[in-house]
Amino acid sequence: MTALRAFRLSPIGWALLTLAAVLVTVALAPFAAFAHDVAEGDKAFVQSIEGPAIFPFLYLGAKHMVTGYDHIAFLVGVVFFLRRLKDVVLYVSMFTIGHSITLMGGVLMGIGANAYIIDAIIGLSVIYKGVENIGGFAKIGLNIDTRLAVLVFGLFHGMGLATKVMDLEVSPNGLLTNLISFNVGVELGQVIVLAFVVTLFNSWRNRPSFAKYAKAANIALIAVGVALTAVQIQGYLSS
Fold this sequence. Notes:
- The protein is mainly α.
- Helix content is 81%, strand content 0%.
């Protein structure tokens, strides 16, 4: 019972429980949830808007990030071993630059992509980060610049966002303002997610259990990526 209580109270227990919950949710959620879909009520609301609507789009952007399983899983992998704040800011900035470019550019220039393919690539980004975190690439002599990889995967994450925004058929009246607001909302949601994740990891890294369970946590992260990718491939093949 003592060991069980210790597990319940430890950060590693919460970390593994969170990852397990994400994995179960990924396995059971409808396909639309993985394609960065937006609730039907939100869709109807967006399509009824004519002109700038800053706060509604801020909210939608933040909501999308906070409830985006794939985005969260990737960010967990990115910050997993980052101890210094400047490193967190650097890597998250690379991700932000990437997805902001393709989100804004994709919508404004009308460049979209198949949502299933984009989301499958996003699933692969989660797998990549988990494999890198356990030294998988180093073992085979493959040296990948993590900063560049995070930027490139950020571009794909942004393209996924752009595809879904275009599917909403947002009015061209006030489009730029609303798009900027949505992007800022995504960043606010990202800050909320990272504040929780970084706080959790900072409290865990100073415990002996971090070294013991870090590999297991990243293997769980890889499993999440595999599930995300498999669902999107299945959805693409059946569409």
